[in-house]
Amino acid sequence: MGLFKMPPQIVRLVLLTIAIVGSYFVARAFLTPASFHQYGWFRGNALEELASYQPVFAGKKSCEECHDDQYQKLMKGAHKGLSCEGCHGPSQAHVDDPDDTAARPKKEPFSACVRCHEFNPSRPKWHHQIVSRTHYSGNKCTDCHVPHSPLDVP
Amino acid sequence: MTTEVTNIVVEVMPHFEGYVYPNESGQHPLWSVLIVLYPYITGLVAGAFIMASLVRVFKVRALEPVYRLSMLTALAFLLCAPLPLLFHLGHPERCYEVMMTPHLTSPMAIFGFVYAWYLMAVLLLELWFDFRRDLVAWSNVTSGFRGIIYRLFTLGVTDVSGPALRLDDKIGRTLSIVGIPSAFLLHGYVGFIFGSIKANPWWGSPLVPIIFILSAVVSGIALCVFNYMVLSWVRRRNTDMPCLDIMARFLFYALVVDAAVEGLDWIHRIYAAEEGFQIMKVMIREKLFYTLNLGQATMGTLLPLLLLGSLQLLRKRVPELIRRRMYFASSALILVGVLAMRWNVVIGGQLFSKSLRGVMAYKMEFSGMEGWFMGAVLLALPFTILTVFIKLFLSEKLPSAGHGEPTAARG
Questions:
Q1: How is residue B96 annotated by DSSP?
Q2: Residue B73 and residue B67: Cα distance in Å, rounded?
Q3: Of B316, B376, B331, nearest to B80 (Cα)?
Q4: What is the ipTM of this complex?
Q5: CB B404 within 8 A of CB B137
Q6: How far apart are CA B393 and CA B406, in angstroms?
Q7: Which of A71, B150, B225, B251 could in theory staple to B331 by disulfide, Cβ–Cβ 3.0 to 4.6 A?
Q8: CA neighbor of B41 nearest in space, from B252, B302, B300, B223
Q9: What is the number of domains present in chain A?
Q10: Contacting residues for B400 by C-beta, under 8 A, at least 6 apart
Q11: Closest of B361, B382, B381, B364 to residue B372, by C-alpha
Q12: Contacts of B99 in chain A (CB under 8 A)
């Protein structure tokens, strides 16, 4: 009966506190990911979740199956270490259905070149670098360079 | 090259001088202007609360006209305090996750606990006990949407008898006493986040939390002076000069202590002259020249000290109008100065390399999530919320509200 002797404002505050704390624990029960704390302070199934995603990159070997000529050219030049999809973008959809024109990788943007070749002091000295603003006033890197075989002239 | 590409390239290349690690040369400071605003707003909350507690705990009766304004100021700014962090981190839709999986060993995550304690257990409770009598009275005479709000805030308790009000007053005072260390905890915590980073000579000092608290008290009182004067001007009411004089006196005292401790910190740094000292000299003389020497030291500290200090000696000889203007100028200068101080701490600590032999640059963008515009919006937001609070809870049309004094069932 002690509760009823408490002043009304205190009773109301106690009830409100119980409601707030209670709703927090209810929300926590629903919103905490199920595998949290399984191994530690993270979601235990995070890796399975990542592995379940549908891959969007097909890999260099898939490109070789149809584009053998370009592949051979690339593998002889200085860019042989690069992946096709590094410049052309993800191509799993294109590999799955080569006839679907919408799924074809887009023409590579020029930023694909400056991503690696724009001057940046943190890059090693042997790496070819340019200051694109003063390097060329034209529109395309491919006017003068062949990305699949960088030492060739178009 | 297409102009789009060249423009991007020119803009993203940051500038640096001296020996800078490669990973530092290619990026802007991670903690941008939003992280400058976070300690600034939190400090204003703590300071405004300390200002209010002068009435409640230390019985400075002359300050009663600004008691409720200070409390509402603290609440309005506290509601906005986590917003800079939220916007800076991105993905605001995930913000509930930090509460669902509370982490007890991360200093950053402790902010959730400190904030929740201060908002729910201290500020809202104390405001409720302070306003309860008036809320009951207003809910009886107001109809419509306002009436619903007042009735909602009474939580259905309409008992305003003598013993009930005496209990309210007692609990309110206890909460105020608990609130002082809580306000220190709130802002001391923010200082601790910087002060505990021992790899950074600009931040890593045990004096940083203390400096943060003291500058918070200074900025909070300045904000209350500023708000009170603006509110009086908007309402075309005369300012209560004895109240303003006492506020300015406390502002002066707080500023003296703050300036002394910051001076002590600098004397210690200069005398110890540890390994980071050379780069600090570069920061003071070049990188932070305007914000530190002009903004923080001259505008934010020396000028207000001069203005407020001279008024302590010559108060009776200076006419009211001049005094008011001097108080207003001092409070505005202090508010700018403390913002500059937060800038110097947050941005300054990121402008030099971990090699301690080179400096980087920070150029604030205008638009975007971390730009000037967003900063201005975040600074204006608490004032907007405060305006709504004033309309609701300090309205002159309501009975017994006025500027407000502690409800206190006296007698």
A1: T
A2: 10
A3: B376
A4: 0.80
A5: no
A6: 13
A7: B225
A8: B223
A9: 1
A10: B134, B137
A11: B364
A12: 24
Q: Which residue of A has its CA nearest to B23?
A: A122
**Could A122 and B25 be called an inter-chain contact, meaning their C-beta atoms sit closer than 8 Å?**
yes
pLDDT for the residue A92? 93
Look at residue A99 and tell me if it is in a domain: yes
Return residues 77-96 of A near B (CB < 8 Å).
none
What pLDDT, on a 0 to 100 scale, did the predictor assign at position B403? 39
Q: Which of B292, B287, B298 shows the shortest CA–CA distance to B363?
A: B287
Pick B9's closest partner by Cβ from A28, A41, A133. A133
A44: in domain = no
Region of poorest pLDDT, from A64-68, A80-84, A92-96, A112-116: A112-116
Interface residue A122 vs chain B (CB under 8 A): yes
B1 → chain A, closest CA residue: A139
B98-138: pLDDT as tens digits: 888 888 888 888 888 999 999 989 999 999 999 999 999 99
CB pair distance less than 8 Å for B157 and A32: no
CA–CA gap between residue B106 and residue A124 (Å, rounded): 37
Residue scoring higher pLDDT (B312 or A121) = B312
Asked if residue B385 has pLDDT above 50, the reply is yes
Domain assignment present for A49: no
**Spatial separation of the C-alpha atoms in residues B124 and B179, rounded to whole Å:** 11
Give chain A positions within 8 Å (CB) of B125.
Answer: 13
Search chain B and give the residue with CA nearest A36.
B101
Contact (CB<8Å) B9/A120: no
Could you say which residues from 261 to 320 on chain B have a Cβ atom under 8 Å away from some Cβ of chain A? Answer: none
**Per-residue pLDDT tens over the stretch B156-166:** 999 888 899 99
- What residue of B is the nearest CA neighbor of A109? B5
Q: Would you say B338 and B215 are in contact if contact means Cβ atoms under 8 Å apart?
A: yes
Bridge-based pairing state of the strands B16-19 and A42-43 = unpaired
Q: How many residues does chain B have?
A: 411
Q: Which residue among A9, A122, A133 sits closest to B159, beta carbon to beta carbon? A: A9
Q: What is d(CA B391, CA B409) in angstroms, rounded to the nearest whole number?
A: 24
Kindly report the pTM of this predicted structure.
0.84
Q: Is the pLDDT of residue B12 over 60?
A: no
What does the longest C-alpha to C-alpha distance in chain B come to? 82
Site of tokens 């809910």: B139
Query: Rounded mean pLDDT of B255-274?
Result: 94
Which among A9, A32, A135 is the nearest to B164, CB-wise? A9
Domain that holds residue A127: 60-143
Q: Which tokens sit at A121?
A: 């002091």
Q: Does A54 fall in a domain?
A: no
Q: What letter does residue A37 receive in the DSSP assignment? A: E
CA-nearest residue of chain A to B154?
A: A9
Q: How confident is the model at residue A4 (pLDDT cuts 50, 70, 90)?
A: low
DSSP A69-107: HHHHHHHHSTTTTS-HHHHH---HHHHH-TT-GGGSPPP
Tell me if chain A has a CB within 8 Å of the CB of B95: no
Instruction: Quote the minimal CA–CA distance from B18 to chain A in Å.
Output: 12
DSSP B64: G
B156 touches chain A (CB under 8 A): yes
The answer to whether B100 contacts A32, with C-beta atoms less than 8 Å apart, is yes
